[in-house]
Amino acid sequence: MEIMQVMGRLVCTQRVDGLGHMHLRILRNNAGKQLVAVDPVGAREGNWVFTASGSAARFACPDPNTQTDLTIGGIIDYWLPDG
Amino acid sequence: MEIMQVMGRLVCTQRVDGLGHMHLRILRNNAGKQLVAVDPVGAREGNWVFTASGSAARFACPDPNTQTDLTIGGIIDYWLPDG
Amino acid sequence: MEIMQVMGRLVCTQRVDGLGHMHLRILRNNAGKQLVAVDPVGAREGNWVFTASGSAARFACPDPNTQTDLTIGGIIDYWLPDG
Amino acid sequence: MEIMQVMGRLVCTQRVDGLGHMHLRILRNNAGKQLVAVDPVGAREGNWVFTASGSAARFACPDPNTQTDLTIGGIIDYWLPDG
Amino acid sequence: MEIMQVMGRLVCTQRVDGLGHMHLRILRNNAGKQLVAVDPVGAREGNWVFTASGSAARFACPDPNTQTDLTIGGIIDYWLPDG
Predict the structure, then answer these.
(1) Mean pLDDT estimate for chain A
(2) Which of A25, D13, D23, D64 has the fewest CB atoms below 10 angstroms from its CB?
(3) Distance (Å) from the C-alpha of residue E65 to the closest C-alpha of chain C?
(4) How many Cα atoms occupy the beta-carbon half-sphere of A24 within 13 Å?
(5) E19 pLDDT band (50/70/90 cuts)?
(6) Which residues, if any, are the signal sequence (chains A, B, C, D, E) (predicted)?
(7) Which residues of chain D have a CB within 8 Å of the CB of E55?
(8) Rounded average pLDDT over C51-55
(9) Which of A9, A45, A55 is facing B55, going by the closest CB pair?
(10) Nearest residue of chain C to residue B68 (CA atoms)
């Protein structure tokens, strides 16, 4: 899973049925690339999140047939070195 | 999901049955690379779209057994920062 | 799906059963990297083809359990800008 | 599967249900990129591990529906050239 | 599928059950990166092999639930240009 930051939301009136009513978020990865993800956790602009890709992206949605390959899995509070 | 721009359409008379009659589109990603996607939403040249890859690409098609690893998921109207 | 050119064929007497009798082709992508794909469409050296990766690569084969992650999906005739 | 080193653990109070109570680890790959993985083997900071991605990441968890695309598969003791 | 060279074997006493007793091999791809694969074909150090990734990696194993995302699919004898 990758660490990304939320940049905003995407408005697409014409889209495939398989996305249902899921909100689409613009994320930026550590290489500066902008990606689109569905957001079942309610992240906000500026939040650091981790994302799941591939078939795991579907399992994170209420409907696992959702046509997504990138889903926000959680909002990062902080991280700690062990010990 | 990635953001790409539609460049044109691809003509392939000799192709696998698993693509059915789906139209094939040439897309260009943000690195300038040309990719091929199926298009269930009716995008046109110049449109900015977002795409789904992997198994999600199949779920976006009328027949989820369609042999595609890249499908146009929607046409982008605009995007907004939060708040 | 990606655009690649056919370079030749690969000979492997010792290989997993899951590939059956499928022919193996050497392809070159636009970064000059050589990849191996199965070929259900009968492409020839020099042909420009598009390929499907991931689970879609299996659906393009007569037996969807074929152990491949890259399959030639069609031979490109030409491509056209819209309008 | 890739070789990575464990850097610490990630704390996320707000996350999708599909991750259950799995611990989240920060890993660093050989390009210096930080990634997030679930850890069913009990790796510690500084350990060198190998990871599985894609659907294989799910099969390594007690619940194969776990929403992960990266899972630690084992802790590396050492590696040997053949013969 | 990618072309890689076998470098040695990996010893991991602590690993997930999903790998069973499969041998783990260290491979090097054409960018010099070291990867870990399971080996159902009996490749030896120095052999050039091709590998399958993703879900195809599992289908190449005796147990398709094996937790691998990279499996050696065959040992390369040689390759030929067409015609």
Answers:
(1) 90
(2) D13
(3) 13
(4) 32
(5) confident
(6) none
(7) 54-56
(8) 94
(9) A55
(10) C56
**Which class would CATH give A2-75?**
mainly beta
- Tell me which residue has tokens 């795409």: B51
pLDDT band for position D83 (cuts 50, 70, 90): low
Interface pTM, i.e. ipTM: 0.88
pLDDT for residue B29: 93
Counting beta carbons within 10 angstroms of the beta carbon of residue E2, is it exposed (0 to 12), middle (13 to 18) or buried (19 or more)? buried
Tokens 């943000």 label which residue?
B30
Question: DSSP assignment, residue E56?
Answer: H
CA distance D32 to D27: 9
Structure-token pair, residue A83: 């010990």
Test the D interface: residue of A4, A69, A79 with most D CBs within 10 Å:
A79
The whole-number pLDDT of residue B73 equals 94
Give chain D's count of helices (H) and strands (E). 1, 7
> D74 to chain E: which residues are within 8 Å by CB?
12, 14-16, 19, 24
Identify all chain B residues contacting C59, using CB atoms and an 8 Å cutoff. Answer: 18, 58, 65-67
- Closest by Cα among A15, C51, C36 to B10: C51
Residue carrying structure tokens 């390009």: D31
CB contact under 8 A, A45 and B77: no
In this complex, which of D3, D73, D80 lies closest to E15 when CB atoms are compared? D73
Mean pLDDT (whole number) for B2-20: 90
Rounded CA gap, C61 and B60, in Å?
Answer: 21
Per-residue confidence (pLDDT) for residue D36, from 0 to 100: 97
Mean pLDDT of chain B: 90
pLDDT band at D61 (very low <50, low <70, confident <90, very high): confident
Distance CA D35, CA C77 (A): 41
Q: D60 to chain E: which residues are within 8 Å by CB?
A: 16, 18, 67
Q: Mind giving me the DSSP string for C63-80?
A: STT---SEEEEEE--EEE
Distance separating alpha carbons of residues D14 and D43, to the nearest angstrom = 24
Residue E46's closest chain D neighbor by CA? D82
Closest CA to A66 of A54, A57, A74, A53: A57
Chain C residues with CB under 8 Å of B45 CB are 81-83
Return the domain boundaries, chain B.
Answer: 2-75
Q: Do E44 and D2 touch (CB under 8 A)?
A: no
pLDDT tier at A13 (50, 70, 90 boundaries)?
Answer: confident
Residue located via tokens 């899951």: C18
